[in-house]
């Protein structure tokens, strides 16, 4: 009973852990074998008999009987006189099995055993948690805000597992208070040391894809397929959807009457503007749809260079580019093609890159970022508008406009 009482004292905390008695006893055996190695130098000649039903174990040391004065290894050999104290009829050469009581290991060893056991159980728990969340990678998960730090929000789920939502994985408009429930995607799970690091994301495109699965029954049932999602978190997203059933309008089903179905998703994403687009394998048509809400006049595709030249009426150009260049950037990501926007009747236009001798490359790049690739596309914009939409000084923009005007005045 001595061993049983000690083991009970070791495992009194196990009820708070996700560990069954059989696993606990296996961990106990491993811990005791390590303790025996430390005390006796080896555990090879020890038998540990585990009884998981009773929650008990026995430790037996096996030694060979040798003549008095011939003991070379006290761990593996026992003198005839010592052996006969255990059993009076032992003879030289016989094996002696003697039970080792835990109390015989000493108080210090027992404390070390307890600490080692706690450590092993934590390690076991962490492995279970790691496997559990590894299976949840790419799935939506909900947890409660526990602590708000400068660079991350620390969440706890119902089981007390810690989940990290880094600042860069949040939507820019996200604002959390302690106790708030937060939905996001389990983006990655790694073991750091022995502790699982669980990272949540609300900015990943797959979060939006999974929200479609949760909120739109036809997507959940597989009647509508989400082909691709691209996002600028909190600003704008484009979702290409398809259906193999001609009777289903995938865009209509996803948006709902007056946007009723998609409204909850938009609200979850901080009023992110979501364009839902009918997917098609017809590349010209897909690029045209991707530039919605702009109406495209014609598309010229260079498949080798993965570029598309799109011609629009002048009043449609700003719609195609979108605020901050978001629309054209997402259209390019959705289709996999770099899209160049040209205005109707702009055949005499000149690419900005042609002015690289007079205009520095980084300035040309600033115009490219907002979808302005040609001289006329820049000249058609008001200077104040260009100052707002780029990171360029007004004086720099005036210099560029003067250079471009000279081209067309010659």
Task: Note the main attributes of this structure.
single chain; 410 residues; alpha+beta; N Utilization Substance Protein A, Chain:P, domain 4; OB fold (Dihydrolipoamide Acetyltransferase, E2P); GMP Synthetase, Chain A, domain 3; five-stranded antiparallel beta sheet; four-stranded mixed beta sheet; 38% helix; elongated
Topology at a glance:
Blueprint: H1 2-10, H2 21-40, E1 46-51, E2 56-66, E3 77-79, H3 80-86, E4 95-100, H4 107-134, E5 140-148, E6 152-156, E7 162-166, E8 181-192, E9 195-201, H5 205-215, H6 217-220, E10 224-232, E11 236-243, H7 250-255, H8 263-268, E12 273-278, H9 283-290, E13 296-302, E14 307-312, H10 314-321, H11 326-335, E15 338-343, H12 361-369, H13 375-379, H14 383-389, H15 394-409
Parallel strand pairs: 2-3, 11-12, 14-15
Antiparallel strand pairs: 1-2, 2-4, 5-6, 5-8, 6-7, 8-9, 10-11, 13-14
Helix pairs in contact: 2-4, 9-11
Structure report:
With 410 residues, the protein is an alpha+beta fold. Among the domains are: 2-131, N Utilization Substance Protein A, Chain:P, domain 4; 138-201, Beta Barrel (OB fold (Dihydrolipoamide Acetyltransferase, E2P)); 204-279, 2-Layer Sandwich (GMP Synthetase, Chain A, domain 3), CATH 3.30.300.20. The chain has helices spanning 2-10, 21-40, 80-86, 107-134, 205-215, 217-220, 250-255, 263-268, 283-290, 314-321, 326-335, 361-369, 375-379, 383-389, 394-409; strands at residues 46-51, 56-66, 77-79, 95-100, 140-148, 152-156, 162-166, 181-192, 195-201, 224-232, 236-243, 273-278, 296-302, 307-312, 338-343. The strands form four sheets. A five-stranded antiparallel beta sheet has the order 7-6-5-8-9. Strands 1, 2, 3 and 4 form a four-stranded mixed beta sheet that branches. The termini are far apart. The mean pLDDT is 86.
């Amino acid at each position: 009973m001595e061993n049983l009482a000690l083991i009970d004292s070791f495992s009194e905390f196990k009820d708070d852990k996700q560990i069954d008695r059989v696993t606990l006893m296996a961990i106990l055996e491993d811990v005791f074998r390590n303790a025996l190695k430390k005390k006796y130098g080896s555990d090879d000649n020890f038998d540990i008999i585990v009884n998981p039903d009773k929650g008990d174990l026995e430790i037996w040391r096996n030694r060979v009987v040798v003549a008095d004065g011939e003991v070379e290894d006290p761990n593996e050999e026992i003198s005839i006189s010592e052996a006969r104290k255990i059993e009076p009829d032992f003879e030289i050469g016989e094996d002696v099995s003697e039970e080792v009581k835990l109390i015989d290991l000493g108080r210090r060893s027992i404390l070390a055993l307890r600490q080692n056991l706690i450590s092993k159980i934590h390690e076991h728990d962490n492995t279970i948690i790691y496997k559990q969340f590894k299976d949840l990678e790419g799935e939506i998960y909900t947890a409660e805000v526990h602590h708000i730090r400068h660079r991350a929000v620390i969440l706890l789920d119902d089981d007390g597992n810690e989940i990290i939502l880094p600042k860069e994985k949040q939507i820019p408009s996200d604002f959390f208070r302690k106790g708030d429930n937060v939905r996001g995607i389990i983006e990655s799970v790694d073991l750091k040391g022995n502790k699982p690091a669980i990272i949540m994301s609300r900015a990943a495109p797959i979060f939006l894809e999974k929200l479609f699965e949760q909120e739109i029954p036809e997507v959940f049932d597989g009647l509508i397929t989400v082909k691709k999602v691209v996002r600028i978190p909190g600003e704008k997203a484009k979702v290409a959807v398809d259906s193999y059933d001609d009777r289903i309008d995938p865009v209509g089903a996803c948006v709902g009457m007056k946007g009723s179905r998609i409204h909850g998703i938009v609200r979850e994403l901080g009023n992110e503007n979501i364009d839902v687009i009918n997917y098609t394998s017809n590349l010209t048509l897909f690029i045209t749809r991707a530039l919605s809400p702009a109406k495209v006049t014609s598309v010229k595709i260079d498949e080798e260079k993965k570029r598309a030249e799109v011609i629009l009426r002048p009043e449609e150009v700003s719609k195609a580019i979108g605020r901050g260049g978001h629309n054209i950037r997402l259209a390019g990501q959705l289709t996999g093609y770099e899209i160049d926007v040209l205005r109707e009747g702009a055949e005499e236009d000149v690419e900005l890159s042609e002015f690289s001798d007079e205009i520095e490359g980084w300035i040309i790049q600033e115009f490219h970022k907002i979808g302005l690739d040609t001289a006329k596309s820049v000249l058609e914009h008001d200077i104040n508008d260009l100052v707002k939409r780029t990171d360029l000084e007004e004086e720099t923009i005036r210099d560029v406009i003067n250079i471009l005007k000279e081209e067309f005045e010659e």
